[in-house]
Write a structure and sequence with these properties.
Layout lengths: L5 E5 L2 E6 L6 H18 L7 H7 L2 E4 L4 H15 L8 H6 L20 H4 E4 L2 E4 L11 H15 L5 E5 L2 E5 L3 E7 L2 E11 L3 E6 L4 E3 L2 E2 L2 E2 L4 E2 L3 E8 L2 H10 L5 H4 L6 E6 L4 E3 L5 E3 L2
Antiparallel strand pairs: 1-2, 2-6, 3-5, 4-5, 6-7, 7-10, 8-9, 9-18, 10-15, 11-12, 13-14, 15-16, 16-17
């Protein structure tokens, strides 16, 4: 594949889409439009989003129909992680300074989220709350968005492609070898894996840091940033699962996730020791 066919910024991250043939301007517009529509629905950093509407006042909001699949995964992750993985960490992130104004100044103490099933009632993509609620879909949302972008490409007749949203990947076509970036040194890799027609998502506590011990991966049971695991990688059939599981691996032993999900994984502890799934198609050096 060529080095790049399409590069753009969306949802606060860099995107690159590689294809064997040049993408038309129309397809590029469709891709960017899909990313913008997702941002307009789920961003807690813009006042006109659906998420912002629920943050201002309780009530019912009808999210796009595709949100049902996203929220279904959160239901299961909340159950398996016993509340550690939840889309209700938004208020906790704001309290720690990761808010729409990017104040980056933490308030005293912690804000502990309510449990997702207790705070929200849902029918499909329709969400109802009884109090102002800040939803943050960061644990799985970007992975789901790369799936939605992949749908745009397929619907446009593009059958072979690689979508890279700052390290979260969807591959369709020939197998792809991918290096796993070392969280302590971006110039190095801790391993290499081979992707088939599947997705790889990575998460690291070094990605969004704005103070001592302050980063974006919060434990929903405590409202505090996690510290035991510092980086994870998950490979699954689609980006939604890969992204959600990359987050869950910070809090849940892989053996507890295995009965519920089909995936491969790598994760690195804060002491630098890495572990991997037995069926991983690749190798880990650390």
């Amino acid at each position: 594949m060529p080095p790049s066919n399409l590069r753009f910024e969306g949802i606060g991250t860099a995107w690159q889409i590689d294809t064997p043939d040049e993408l038309s301007g129309l397809v590029g517009d469709r891709v960017r439009g899909r990313v913008e529509a997702f941002d307009r629905a789920y961003s807690r950093f813009r006042p006109d989003s659906l998420v912002a509407r629920l943050a201002e006042a309780p009530g019912t909001v009808d999210f796009p129909d595709d949100a049902a699949e996203l929220f279904d995964l959160y239901d299961l992750l909340d159950e398996v992680s016993e509340g550690a993985v939840t889309p209700l960490v938004g208020r906790s992130l704001e309290h720690l300074g990761y808010d729409s104004a990017y104040s980056l100044t933490a308030g005293p103490g912690r804000v502990v989220p309510a449990r997702w099933p207790d705070a929200v009632s849902r029918v499909g993509a329709s969400v109802t709350t009884t109090a102002p609620t800040v939803i943050d879909v960061g644990a799985a949302g970007k992975g789901y968005l790369i799936d939605l972008v992949a749908e745009v490409l397929v619907d446009s007749g593009v059958e072979s492609f690689v979508i890279d949203a700052s390290g979260d990947l969807v591959n369709r076509g020939e197998p792809l070898r991918v290096g796993l970036e070392h969280p302590f040194d971006p110039s190095k890799a801790i391993g290499v894996v081979t992707l088939g027609n599947e997705s790889l998502c990575a998460s690291g506590s070094n990605r969004r840091v704005w103070g001592e011990g302050l980063h974006h991966i919060l434990d929903g049971r405590t409202g505090a940033p996690t510290s035991d695991i510092i980086a994870t990688w998950a490979i699954a059939k689609n980006g939604l699962l890969a992204d959600g599981l990359a987050t869950a691996l910070f809090f849940v032993p892989p053996a507890r996730l295995a009965p519920h999900f089909d995936f491969d994984w790598v994760r690195m502890h804060s002491n630098g020791i890495a572990e991997r799934s037995r069926t991983l198609r690749g190798e880990v050096f650390s």
